[in-house]
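Section 5: illustrative case.
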């Protein structure tokens, strides 16, 4: 009996495994894959009635030493506990420690030798640069100058509070620090300095320059992921006052509103600055190239302090150099007039003067249309070699012409593309403030998608590299060993650009253009932006809002595109052509859809062409049993007469890629006309591998093509066409047959 039970259980298990293999539940709800809704985050995707988030205000003073490329600073942080929890300690992020000698980043970075290794590559490979990086913390004190106990764990610092911070309370404390600014050419991107040997000057693009509060929220508690270099930043909002002391001949751009323009600009520069605030058609040059070139040579030993204020931002950054040219123009955003600005050395001209600030303005216009009106007073693009990096109101962008000032279209489009992308980050994640350390796609993917909309609107001749279905095909059909789902932590992603930027952008393009339609999508996307502006959304909040605001169940879409590595590959596996029999004798022949007669074994080759003549079916009257209790009946004769000359096409489609998708069919008729038909993805809900469907057409079909405009990211186009030959050949055969 026990043996029989084991056999029965084995058979049952085998059946379940087989059933699951045949039906992968691609249309089941995400369910427990998403966090349970609560009073903080609702099932609709909106913030709940008890939603809360912390606030951190800063008063910062730093000095940049142009002689030894270092930063020295002090700050007062006021932390507001708006959570329902008592906090006995606070976590502060020390992101510069990623470059410290004791950093884990080089230890966990894999390396390999090759036949030829450059000096720079070798230095990077073995972490051999002569650079003493990382924060040097001088003190952490309370407001009475009494030292606070603190513990540094790599890029995180715990500050122990003498008394627990109660809900609704606030605490202020002071930190003093210094660090050596990194050479970006040797030590990598994001922030640092670039040296110009010809004139002996520096361009500083400075960020992560102060100890910053970590996020404490209802999802994870304290953010506890170390900064290894790729997963970016998770920061609370707050109000900032900060001052930066630099050489007196430097021009400085930063997050926030300049408080002391009359002290740091000449009278002529002030007048140009004021003019820019009311100039909408073209940039106004505030600091000219001639003035910048003069400053390059004089190199003042005096100092100036630039002071800024910024409200409701999550971070601040700045750029400074005596080499900077500065231009600006106003942008009309529904009556608000933020300034679009650019800072660039002469090495960026003529390209930067011509294109940069206009690209900033174009970005603010389109992003405001699709998300929320841009709320900040300005947006800055700074020219820096070989970088694209973003911070609130300021970003650092590549795109340097050749020394003679010439540049290719590729260089121009690359520069405009990176400016649009980095300025766009003001919306994702600087305003719609997702957790970059955990979910790169929530800022990079969404931003790349809206970037593609901006490029289409303002630069129709510009090639779209990311943000279209066809753009992601090569990646999605690649070796799955080198691919991970979009819903993967930043540090575990294998192909970062494809996974976090290109694939989610392509997914949203498919969702907008093919599945939801622009009207439904745009409304729901804007609703998400409005709900979560200046808040901390999670992936579930985005997924749920898009469904809630559109009345579309999209769990199948999120599951396939975001949680798996499946790809789209729908094949026309078989086509049969039928017409109604006029002699009511049933099938007149046994010709298959491939044009071949059934073999003795009853098997046939896969269809590659239409049969020479349509197979026939017998039209029969509707039986009385079909009506059940209904007294009324259909007019069988009228139906027969209506369709006596109709062509019926039975299509068998196979889902070879695993990713369920809408089916777009383009029918080409014998008279040369075309018709496009859209079948929702739910066609696969009963069989995720193969479906059969009959279509009635008044005209004879000579060609069938799936996804003719490459809207679904189908990776294999050859199996999308039936017959398995080009349309022209089929037209020629049809004409010969008629003649």
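Designed sequence:
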């Amino acid at each position: 009996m026990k043996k029989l039970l084991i056999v029965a259980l084995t058979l049952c298990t085998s059946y379940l495994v087989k059933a699951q293999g045949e039906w992968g539940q691609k249309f089941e709800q995400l369910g427990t894959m998403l966090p349970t809704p609560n009073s903080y985050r609702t099932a609709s995707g909106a913030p709940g009635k008890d939603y809360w988030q912390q606030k951190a205000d800063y008063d910062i003073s730093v000095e940049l030493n142009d002689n030894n490329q270092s930063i020295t600073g002090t700050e007062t942080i006021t932390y507001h506990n708006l959570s329902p929890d008592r906090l006995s300690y606070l976590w502060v992020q020390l992101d510069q420690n990623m470059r410290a000698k004791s950093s884990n980043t080089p230890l966990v970075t894999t390396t390999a030798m090759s036949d030829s290794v450059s000096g720079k590559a070798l230095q990077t490979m073995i972490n051999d640069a002569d650079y003493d990086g990382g924060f040097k913390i001088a003190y952490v004190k309370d407001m009475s100058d009494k030292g606070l106990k603190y513990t540094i764990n790599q890029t995180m610092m715990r500050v122990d509070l003498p008394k627990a911070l109660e809900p609704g309370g606030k605490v202020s404390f002071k930190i003093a620090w210094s660090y050596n600014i990194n050479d970006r050419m040797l030590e990598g991107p994001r922030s640092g300095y670039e040296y110009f040997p010809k004139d002996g000057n520096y361009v500083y693009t400075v960020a992560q320059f102060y100890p910053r509060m970590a996020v404490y929220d209802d999802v994870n508690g304290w953010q506890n992921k170390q900064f290894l270099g790729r997963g970016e930043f998770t920061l609370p909002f707050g109000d900032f006052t900060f001052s930066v002391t630099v050489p007196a001949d430097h021009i400085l751009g930063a997050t926030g509103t300049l408080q002391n323009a009359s002290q740091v600009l000449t009278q002529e520069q002030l007048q140009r600055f004021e003019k820019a605030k009311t100039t909408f058609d073209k940039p106004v040059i505030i600091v000219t190239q001639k003035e910048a070139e003069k400053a390059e040579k004089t190199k003042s030993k005096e100092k100036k302090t630039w002071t800024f204020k910024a409200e409701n931002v999550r971070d601040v950054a700045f750029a400074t150099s005596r080499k900077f040219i500065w231009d600006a123009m106003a942008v009309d955003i529904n009556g608000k007039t933020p300034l679009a600005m650019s800072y660039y050395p002469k090495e960026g001209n003529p390209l930067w003067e011509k294109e940069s600030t206009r690209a900033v303005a174009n970005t603010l216009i389109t992003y405001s249309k699709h998300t929320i009106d841009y709320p900040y007073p300005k947006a800055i693009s700074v020219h820096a070699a070989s970088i694209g990096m973003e911070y609130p109101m300021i970003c650092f962008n590549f795109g340097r012409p050749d020394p003679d000032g010439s540049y290719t279209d590729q260089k121009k489009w690359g520069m405009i593309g990176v400016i649009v992308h980095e300025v766009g980050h003001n919306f994702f994640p600087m305003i719609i403030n997702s957790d970059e350390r955990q979910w790169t796609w929530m800022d990079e993917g969404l931003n790349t998608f809206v970037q593609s909309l901006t490029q289409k609107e303002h630069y129709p001749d510009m090639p779209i590299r990311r943000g279209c279905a066809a753009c992601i095909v090569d990646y999605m059909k690649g070796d799955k060993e080198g691919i991970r789902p979009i819903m993967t932590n930043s540090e575990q992603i294998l192909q970062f650009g494809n996974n976090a930027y290109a694939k989610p952008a392509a997914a949203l393009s498919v969702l907008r253009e093919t599945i939801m339609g622009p009207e439904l999508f745009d409304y729901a996307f804007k609703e998400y932006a409005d709900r979560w502006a200046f808040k901390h959304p999670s992936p579930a909040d985005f997924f749920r809002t898009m469904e809630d605001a559109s009345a579309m169940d999209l769990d199948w879409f999120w599951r396939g595109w975001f949680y798996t590595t499946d790809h789209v590959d729908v094949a026309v596996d078989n086509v049969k052509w039928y017409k109604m029999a006029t002699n009511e004798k049933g099938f007149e022949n046994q010709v298959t859809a491939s044009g071949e007669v059934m073999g003795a074994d009853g098997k046939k080759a896969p269809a590659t062409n239409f049969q020479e003549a349509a197979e026939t079916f017998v039209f029969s009257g509707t039986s009385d049993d079909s009506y059940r209790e209904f007294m009324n009946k259909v007019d069988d004769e009228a139906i027969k007469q209506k369709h006596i000359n109709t062509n019926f096409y039975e299509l068998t489609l196979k889902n070879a890629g695993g990713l369920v998708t809408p089916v777009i069919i383009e029918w080409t008729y014998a008279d040369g006309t075309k018709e496009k038909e859209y079948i929702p993805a739910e066609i696969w809900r009963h069989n995720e591998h193969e479906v059969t469907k009959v279509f009635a057409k008044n005209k004879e079909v000579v060609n069938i093509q799936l996804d003719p405009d490459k809207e679904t990211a189908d990776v294999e186009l050859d199996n999308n066409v039936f017959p398995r030959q080009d349309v022209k050949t089929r037209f020629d055969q049809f004409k010969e047959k008629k003649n």
